[in-house]
Design goal:
eight-stranded mixed sheet; four-stranded parallel sheet
Length: about 400
């Protein structure tokens, strides 16, 4: 390395929480060297090479973490379900709400009725709340259109949204979220459309980075998921799965057998699921927001995941029905208080392992040379404070691709 290598910027004056290997791996009084949107050197100030930086940014203490990764959201949808939320709290049952035309089908109707521009605008408002708290990478799923045209509109809205925000946005096709009302008596008809028409078009237009499905007794059976995954794999598309949220169907092990990026929810996951996920490198994505709002009591088997070495990510699951969450940082606290994660595990879950759940662990999720320069400065004394404080936006400075936001 030349002694006076010219670079874009140096960032110094804070402790660096690198999250290398999923641990704090803290560097006291650290320096980040950035060029062309990437980290080219990370280490203690005392060992920093003699860079010639066009810009130098000096912090007055605090900590720097990787940009946060929200690896499971449903941010694009029409309408909201706050009225149903109030009804439930006033004692109206799910069955009664559904009979009134509520539930997921109300979101489907509102999403189908919305234009792509309306979907982008409403999602942008929700996404901005996450970005303000240090999120620099986010995954967004389709799944509220449940017809060919509306699913494509949702995915195009996600791609359009990606062009307007200082964040890396991944799109996931979740057409296998539920069965459209038009196919309630012919579920195989919807599966055929997904596999034979929708996924090939999604692939041809580059509209999605992965394919997801909901494996549950009230959604898709393991056999139906296999059909969708076979179609996705034939197109060269990575897969992931909503699994074991309400019952044990072996969906997590099924997903792992396909080399899935992640299996998500997992309250009812078994030792066999954990073993399969560990064998195939499938990430366990834990979603405490839905667990909390649905008042569940069956916790995901964190101890099993630890024993088998399964990486655990945390995400907001931001959606209109079961997790209207607009704070990934709140999920850090919930992951610890509700699921028993340590603060270090929780932070790894929204950095390196969140990135791995998107297949981005080699470029995102930790502060190491060669990775993208997405990071956040927090005026805090230690990483556990990110988990400790409940509510409110902690002041922070977000740097995306080497540029202060």
């Amino acid at each position: 390395m030349a002694e006076t290598e010219q670079i874009d910027s140096l960032w110094l004056g804070a402790d660096i929480v690198t999250m290398r290997d999923g641990h704090y791996n803290l560097i006291a009084d650290g320096v980040l060297a950035v060029d062309q949107g990437k980290l080219i050197w990370v280490g203690p100030r005392s060992e920093c090479p003699a860079f010639s930086a066009r810009e130098q940014h000096q912090f007055s203490g605090g900590i720097i973490t990787p940009g946060l990764v929200d690896c499971h959201t449903h941010l694009v949808f029409g309408g909201d379900r706050s009225q149903e939320f109030e009804q439930r709290l006033n004692g109206v049952s799910y069955a009664e709400i559904a009979a009134q035309g509520g539930g997921i089908l109300s979101t489907v109707r509102a999403t189908r009725a919305a234009s792509q521009q309306e979907l982008v605008a409403s999602a942008r408002w929700r996404l901005d709340r996450l970005l303000a708290e240090g999120v620099t990478t986010v995954e967004i799923k389709s799944g509220y259109g449940l017809d060919e045209a509306s699913e494509l509109t949702m995915l195009r809205a996600i791609r359009e949204l990606a062009e307007t925000v200082p964040a890396d946005v991944q799109a996931t096709c979740l057409a296998a979220h539920g069965f459209p009302p038009e196919f309630k008596d012919n579920p195989q008809g919807w599966i055929d459309i997904i596999c034979q028409r929708l996924l090939p078009q999604v692939k041809a237009e580059g509209l999605a980075d992965a394919v997801d499905a909901f494996c549950e007794h009230l959604a898709f059976s393991p056999e139906q998921v296999r059909t969708v995954f076979d179609a996705a794999k034939a197109l060269g598309m990575p897969v992931k799965l909503h699994a074991e949220q309400l019952s044990a169907l072996g969906g997590a092990a099924l997903a792992a057998s396909y080399g899935a990026l992640s299996a998500d929810h997992l309250e009812y996951a078994t030792a066999a699921d954990a073993q399969a996920m560990a064998q195939h490198g499938t990430v366990a994505v834990l979603l405490p927001g839905a667990f909390y709002l649905l008042r569940e009591t069956q916790r995901p088997p964190v101890t099993l995941f630890r024993e088998h070495g399964v990486a655990m990510a945390l995400a907001s699951d931001a959606n209109p029905g079961t997790s209207p969450a607009l704070s990934l940082r709140l999920m850090l606290n919930m992951g610890c208080t509700l699921f028993g994660l340590t603060p270090e595990e929780a932070l790894a879950g929204v950095t390196l392992w969140g990135a791995k759940a998107l297949g981005l662990q080699h470029s995102h999720g930790s502060l190491e040379a060669g990775k993208v320069a997405n990071f956040v400065h927090w005026p805090l004394a230690r990483p556990a404070e990110l988990v400790y404080w409940l509510g409110g936006e902690l002041p922070c400075q977000v740097i995306y691709r080497g540029e202060a936001q």
